[in-house]
Amino acid sequence: MENLFRLVDQEQDFFQPKWTLVNGPIIVGAGPSGLAAAACLKEQGVPFVVVERADCIASLWQKRTYDRLKLHLPKQFCQLPKLPFPEDYPEYPTKRQFIEYLESYAKHFDINPKFNECVQSARYDETSGFWRVKTVVSTGSNKTEFEYICRWLIVATGENAESVMPDIEGLSEFGGEVIHACDYKSGEKFKGQKVLVVGCGNSGMEVSLDLCNHNASPSMVVRSSVHVLPREIFGKSTFELAVLMMKWLPLWLVDKLMLILAWLVLGNTEKYGLKRPSTGPLELKNTKGKTPVLDIGALEKIRSGDINVVPGIKRFSRGQVELVNGEKLEIDSVVLATGYRSNVPSWLEEGEFFGKNGYPKAPFPQGWKGKAGLYAAGFTRRGLSGASSDAMRIAHDIGTVWKEENKQLKKRTIARHRRCISLSQF
Ligand SMILES: Cc1cc2nc3c(=O)[nH]c(=O)nc-3n(C[C@H](O)[C@H](O)[C@H](O)COP(=O)(O)OP(=O)(O)OC[C@H]3O[C@@H](n4cnc5c(N)ncnc54)[C@H](O)[C@@H]3O)c2cc1C
Ligand SMILES: NC(=O)c1ccc[n+]([C@@H]2O[C@H](COP(=O)([O-])OP(=O)(O)OC[C@H]3O[C@@H](n4cnc5c(N)ncnc54)[C@H](OP(=O)(O)O)[C@@H]3O)[C@@H](O)[C@H]2O)c1
To answer: Would I find Nucleotide-binding among this entry's keywords (predicted)?
Structure first.
């Protein structure tokens, strides 16, 4: 009897379908961009499937960010389409509040991603006119392959899908703890330690500040230049101010005004080792994707000497780092705040719409739609507000085709039905 059950089980496994035809688009990624695209499609009445490699929505926010993180931009620029933040949320919601909002967002629009399913490859099949999306589904230690066949593919895997781990001479011999900022939670465990923070973007600055607040001694590596702007200027959000000015003034002038205002509020940052790039902050963001730092307290710690700004790294050795100026520092741990990259080139077999860097080649606002039903959500270098605008455009585009085809289908069905009725009268 037991053997019979075993046989039936095996047979069920054998007959498990290995592929499915999706009625509607496949959305790869259940971060804010994927959720926003799904919600907008729902409103258009278009069915979809969301595939997510992690076991939860917004895995970047839930698993790969530090505890003290808050949104850097005011909440009106970070909420997703069709559902605002709760009214009692502060101007800059905390990470926990943002995650709660995203969870209620998914629930509100009844979005149920397929978790633990990582897309391995996707390619357009010219002959059939369909996308073939291959995934690996993980159930415990068990891994199975699956394939989705669909007309539309929405790439929402994010600009920060993989962490950038630099290859620095001697790092493997260093001996102390080395982590990427995506694994940093709090300075608690670094209490009393000398920590080298590599990188001075928003992550590097905030990790350094957090280390200070936990009685660690951070040295922050600034190998080139960085624009530091205050998060607020005279009580108004710097970002909001820039958006407002951009409505009337050219970008170069807004950049100049931003730098004058930043100088009035922060003073000359260069004297603390924070050299400014020759290109303005907005132009640099648009052309190179380099985000300016919005200061939330790190600069004060740099001024007071609690955060030690140091130049680029020459090499590591056991318990030590040598800098390009020849200085040697004894250190206990290293936090690599060296940024992130897109992973699209590793799985999407396409070279026309996406570039080698994993971003759409066309700049904002053109980079949301490719050919043959390919779309990109959340690659605008404009954070959450860019993700929302992509999602609305994509859903409207697919929704229009969907409704038109459904109308045609209904007409054909009614005509066929009428023919049947009239034939049956003979
Ligand atoms: C520390 C930090 C703080 C930030 N703070 C802000 C902020 O305050 N405001 C702002 O506007 N932006 C901020 N950002 C930028 C951030 O990228 C966006 O806010 C937002 O997370 C982008 O959403 P997304 O859905 O495009 O990407 P993600 O949030 O990265 O979501 C992409 C999802 O795709 C999944 N995925 C990736 N590859 C695959 C695959 N092959 N198969 C299946 N699933 C896959 C990932 O697991 C992930 O869940 C921050 C980024 C970081 C790193
Ligand atoms: N609260 C928030 O809103 C918040 C907080 C954190 C992050 N973020 C966002 O998350 C995204 C990623 O930010 P991030 O700070 O993690 O990354 P980032 O902005 O890409 O900064 C990476 C930093 O690492 C440096 N770096 C890289 N390789 C290096 C090396 N080998 N040696 C020395 N320095 C090196 C870079 O220097 P170079 O400039 O010289 O290359 C740069 O300073 C951004 O969009 C950011 O705005 C937001």
So the answer is: no
Q: What is the pLDDT of residues 348-385, one digit of tens each?
A: 999 999 999 999 999 888 999 999 999 999 999 999 99
Q: Based on the domain organization, do 118 and 73 belong to the same domain?
A: yes
My answer on whether 220 and 331 are in the same domain is yes
Residue 59 pLDDT exceeds 80: yes
Q: Count other Cβ atoms within 10 Å, centred on residue 129.
A: 10
Position in ligand 1 atom list of the atom nearest CA 70: 8
Asked whether residue 185 is assigned to any structural domain, the reply reads yes
Domain limit, last residue, from 271, 304, 339: 339
**pLDDT class for 408, splitting at 50, 70, 90?**
confident
On whether both 82 and 199 belong to a single domain, the answer is no
What are the DSSP calls for 25-89, one per residue? -EEE--SHHHHHHHHHHHHHT---EEE-SSSSSSHHHHHSS-TT-B-SS-GGGTPPTT-PPPTTS
CA of 157 to the centre of ligand 1 (A): 7
Ligand 2: lining residues by beta carbon, under 6 Å: 69-72, 160, 166, 168, 181, 198-204, 206, 221, 223-224, 291, 312-313, 337-340
Average pLDDT over every residue of 112-134: 98
Q: What confidence category does residue 426 fall into, taking pLDDT thresholds of 50, 70 and 90?
A: very low
- Report the separation in Å between the CA atom of 103 and the middle of ligand 2, taken as the mean of its atom positions: 27
Q: Is 158 in the pocket of ligand 1 (CB under 6 A)?
A: yes
The greatest distance separating any two alpha carbons of the chain, rounded to the nearest whole angstrom, comes to 99
